[in-house]
Protein: Cytochrome P450 87A3-like
Organism: Ziziphus jujuba
Amino acid sequence: WKNPHCHGKLPPGSMGFPLIGETVQFFTPNHSLYDIPPFIRSRMVRYGSLFRTSLVGRKVVVSVDPEINHQIFQQEGKSFLICYTESFSEIIGRKSLLVYHEMAHKYLKNLILHLVGPANLKAKLIHEMDESTRTRLHSWASHGNIVDIKEATSNMVFEYFAKKLISYDECKTSKKLKDNYNAFISGLISFPINIPGTAYHACLEGRKNALKVIKDTMEGRKNCNINHGDFLDYLVEEVRKEDTILSEEIAVNMIFLLLFAAYETTSTAITLAIKFISDHPQVLIQLTREHEGILKSRENKNSEITWQEYKSMTFTHMVINETLRLANIVPGIFRKAVKDVEMNGFTIPAGWLVMVVPAITHLDPDKYDDPLSFNPWRWEGKELHAGSKTFMAFGGGVRLCVGADFAKLKMAIFLHYLVLNYRWTVTKGGDTIRMPGVIFPNGLHIKISEKQNG
Ligand code: HEM
């Protein structure tokens, strides 16, 4: 156990206890949002930028070297694959986008871009997001004024996106899709022990129930000629074509994956942006100035945000990038080595997992001056719209997040109306725990009211 078989030289490190490995240490909650997880930091100091460990029953090499991370992303489909473990395939689905590579992956990703790519964002979603964001903010400010923004934004993104995907309306059904997703997410990184009572079992049950809702909706659509205008309609049409690899099963799994990938990430990002802005009044002043400037240039003050206006929100984009840099919402990006791979004089054996840790790069003082401070101005004049060796919030290479533009547009629209029309103060919560994903144990409660002359 301690010295696993390898044809070359394994990276240094400890495999921990048999089976359990170092899982307990890895999941030990960390109360500092900003710092590098102690599990990683202590091993970096001891072993260097590439070390071995064992997590949830899997042999893992952790990489905290930006050059190696870049190579790992670039070798997707050649030396490394995103589909990493049997239990993960079971969780995420054997027909998920994540298990497809090369041409099939490209084709499926293009289908998703039909919904969340720049063309549809510009033509359609920007208008819908504008309206739904205004309505939400207005209702929060008029219903007793105190809102747990983590829960509220989570519901906001979930409900909006579930509607876009399958015209699902949580209020009109007893199926409780969101509860099933929450169970699914909670057990996503857990020991693969499938017996009632375990997080893994709850995760699989959540997935099964959520898939059933999506499948039933698809069944109902197949013989129906009504146009719902959602993504499912588009996929049903695509499945009917003769020259497609898209089956009903792949389509159902795609919808399942999209909702999962979109709502916790985006709502956590919005919540953290509000937390950071609340803690940094100078940022709020400059943000407000930017959005007041946009409003001043509008002929009709009540008209919605245009694509040009969105593109002109430079400081807002800086705030978004800075939030995502510090938030490290996806704490680890996993790949599986499909063959023995040589890296920095070490061998990563075939079958092992590699974990890329974006936080190391995002909090590296050589890459970001005074890295633990929230400073949107550091992005001045820098590239704001792509993944790079030093900015991996949305991953990198061919697996770069397909929803990045959607998430950023949603955040920008939200910040626009929030700073222009509302005042808020944090009344409770805001503390965070990394498990290693970010959790708000007490939410983030704000007292929100409409500006009098807003
Ligand atoms: C702030 C919000 C978000 C963050 C931080 C985020 C982060 C990421 C990261 C780091 C990856 C790469 C994972 C890997 O390489 O293993 C990824 C992939 C992905 N994301 Fe996002 N994401 C966000 C929002 C969204 C949204 C809104 C959607 C859907 C509309 C989405 C859909 C996806 C999908 C489908 C993939 C897999 C892409 C592929 O395999 O080619 N994400 N995301």
Summary: The CA atoms of residues 137 and 442 lie 21 Å apart. The mean pLDDT is 91. The domain at 23-450 is CATH 1.10.630.10 (Cytochrome p450). The radius of gyration is 22 Å.
